[in-house]
Design a protein that fits this description.
mainly alpha
C-alpha cells in the first residue's frame, strides 16, 4: 500500500505543478490573445493526456515484470522448503509371491 500511495501523491503533485506552469506560460507568452491561449491550452492538454496514457502503459509493464519476479522468487522458496525426495523403501523392493493360477 505504501508504494502505491507514495506514487499517487507524487503524481498528483506533479499534475498540480504542471498545470500551474502551463497557466503561467500561457499568461506570459500569449497575454490577452484568447484564441492563441485556447489553441495552446488544447495542444498542451492533448500532450498531457498522451503522457497519462504512456505512464499507464509503463506502469502496466512494470507491474507485470514485478509480478513475474515475485512469482519466480516464490517458486524458488517453495523448492527450497520441499523435503528431499526419498528413495524407494526397503520393504517395497522385495518381490511378492504370486499364487499359481491367478
Amino acid at each position: 500500500m505504501g508504494r502505491v500511495f507514495d506514487f499517487a501523491k507524487r503524481r498528483i503533485a506533479g499534475y498540480i505543478v504542471f498545470w500551474i506552469l502551463v497557466l503561467l506560460v500561457l499568461g506570459l507568452f500569449y497575454g490577452n490573445d484568447r484564441p492563441a491561449q485556447a489553441g495552446a491550452l488544447f495542444v498542451l492538454g492533448f500532450a498531457f493526456i498522451g503522457s497519462l496514457l504512456f505512464t499507464r502503459r509503463l506502469k502496466r509493464k512494470q507491474r507485470a515484470r514485478r509480478e513475474a519476479r515475485e512469482a519466480a522468487q516464490r517458486m524458488q522458496q517453495a523448492q527450497a522448503i520441499q523435503p528431499p525426495q526419498r528413495g524407494p523403501s526397503p520393504h517395497s523392493t522385495q518381490p511378492t509371491k504370486q499364487l499359481p493360477g491367478r
